[in-house]
Amino acid sequence: MPLIPVTPSVPPETDRPAPEKVISGDPVFTTWNLEERDGLYCGLWEATPGKWRIAYDEWEYCRILWGRSVITEDGGASFTVTAGDSFVIPPGFQGTWEVLETTRKDYVIRL
Q1: Strands 94-110 and 50-55: what pairing?
Q2: Model's pTM, two decimal places?
Q3: pLDDT (tens digit, 9 = 90+) per residue, 55-72?
Q4: Partner of 56 at 20 to 30 A CA spacing, among 11, 76, 87, 107?
């Protein structure tokens, strides 16, 4: 199997969070899904400024490529993430994601 370059080489999908999840702004998501198989997903994701509720049912590894966002766990701490930051969001995580400056990340999701 050949290597899969992590560059936006496929047509992007554009979406928004569900209206009931939006807290502020009008965030737009652009996603380049590079690979999807056997419960594993990877690609690039970008979001414009705004704030919305998040709830994870899966594991997600992220590395911020550019921008600045604040991820806040319900009843817990807030984390500001910027270019070069890597982190894992576990299943069951609930809170908010606020994009302060358009943010792009690469990601790997395991269901």
Answers
A1: antiparallel
A2: 0.90
A3: 999 999 999 999 999 999
A4: 11
